[in-house]
Specification:
Blueprint: E1 3-5, E2 15-17, E3 21-22, E4 29-38, H1 41-48, E5 57-58, E6 62-70, E7 82-85, H2 95-98, H3 107-110, E8 117-118, E9 126-129, E10 139-143, E11 147-149, H4 156-162, H5 165-177, E12 184-188, H6 192-203, E13 208-212, H7 216-224, E14 229-231, H8 236-244, E15 249-254, H9 259-267, E16 269-277, H10 291-297, E17 300-303, H11 311-323, E18 333-338, H12 342-351, E19 356-360
Parallel strand pairs: 5-9, 12-13, 12-15, 13-14, 15-16, 16-17, 18-19
Antiparallel strand pairs: 1-2, 3-8, 4-6, 4-10, 4-19, 6-7, 7-11, 8-9
Length: 361
């Protein structure tokens, strides 16, 4: 079958191979025919070594498809079921799950160390799947908990977005920040996740939503999705003055994953306000804050992992909002490419020309 493989960490191109096999099928597992997958910035981060991931590996974790085969003991799925791939499934029995913080369950991360694919004539023959999945492939074998059934009226491309970017961005505003109606919001980084955070802030009734991004096309898109103004990073001081009288925003979302932008976000959050860290950054990229400012400013710093709430409930909520026309998911997909042209999608993301590229498989 076809799959896009990164051979070594640090390479910037994927090789599309036709001799890859999905492995690991057995009790408690399912085989999925991937139909659509989104390109998330986390895929690029893993390729670059910012996020830890053994290589060689098949990127992709934002996917949807249909069940081909179910293993022994799997009773909630059957061949033909439409599913979204959940890269962070909850085990239901660990301390985090029992506390209701299923997004902090570590069971899914354990899958990342087990090969999902094999290249019979390759060296090495074992190939991993990013985040225990690897949706840049025609088929993938995962734990049954990673396959979440979706209604028949949800297209595969829309379902794929719900699998990561939309859930992360919407959840940051709805769950983690719980944005207050009438408040002021700034979102730094307006790709697919940032745009979803903007839509979440709009749903919660924020009065002012300032989108901050260096790419003009993304700023223009942010206005269509609910931002009240869109600015480049060097315009942020003026916007802070105009919108908040210089006090700072009630909520600032950092959706880049870098200490420099997190520091900017902190400085533009008002005293007593809330900084929400959404971007996934590197292990060795440290955010510096003084003990005095932490005490004196009383700003809340809230990391948001996968939308900061129960993932399955978040999926259901997003589908309901999409059906009701309260969130726009179709317009998030600005580009479409076949798997064979995956490197074109990588270039689109690096250049900032795409909100989300859908890889059609």
């Amino acid at each position: 079958m076809l799959a896009a493989v990164l051979h070594e960490i640090g390479q910037d191109k994927l090789e599309v191979l036709d001799d890859i096999e999905a492995v690991g099928f057995g009790p408690g597992r399912v085989r999925i025919r991937v139909r659509a997958t989104g390109l998330c910035h986390s895929d690029l981060s893993a390729m670059a070594g910012v996020l830890p991931q053994p290589a060689p590996f098949v990127p992709g974790h934002e996917g949807a498809g249909e069940i081909l085969e179910v293993g022994e003991g799997v009773s909630h799925l059957k061949p033909g079921d439409r599913v979204v791939v959940c890269w962070l499934p909850a085990c239901g029995v660990c301390p985090a799950c029992k506390r209701g913080q299923t997004q902090l369950c570590l069971a899914g991360f354990m899958n990342a160390g087990t090969p999902n694919f094999k290249r019979p004539n390759g060296s090495p023959s074992d190939v991993f799947g990013f985040a225990g999945t690897g949706t840049f492939a025609e088929e993938v074998v995962v734990d049954a908990g990673c396959a979440v059934p979706i209604p028949d009226d949800v297209p595969f491309d829309i379902a794929a977005l719900i699998g990561c970017g939309v859930t992360t961005g919407l959840g940051a505003a709805l769950n983690t920040a719980d944005v207050e109606a009438g408040s002021s919001v700034a979102v730094i980084g307006c790709g697919g996740v940032g745009i979803s955070a903007i839509q979440g802030a709009r749903l919660k009734g924020a009065a002012e939503i300032v989108a901050v991004d260096p790419v003009a096309s993304r700023r223009e898109a942010a206005l269509k999705f609910g931002a009240t103004r869109a600015i480049s990073p060097d315009e942020l001081p003026d916007a802070k003055q105009q919108v908040t009288g210089g006090e700072g925003f009630d909520y600032v979302f950092e959706v880049v994953g870098r200490s420099a932008t997190a520091r900017t976000a902190y400085e533009n959050t008002r005293r007593g306000g809330t900084l929400v860290v959404v971007g996934a950054g590197a292990l060795d990229d440290y955010l510096q804050l003084s003990m005095f400012e932490l005490f004196f400013d009383e700003k809340r710093i809230l990391p948001s992992m996968y939308g900061g709430g129960d993932v399955l409930r978040s999926y259901e909520r997003t589908i309901a909002l999409w059906r009701a026309g309260r969130v726009d998911l179709e317009s998030l997909i600005t580009h479409r490419v076949p798997l064979a042209d995956i490197n074109e999608a990588l270039d689109q993301m690096r250049q900032g020309t795409a909100l989300r590229t859908c890889i059609e498989i």
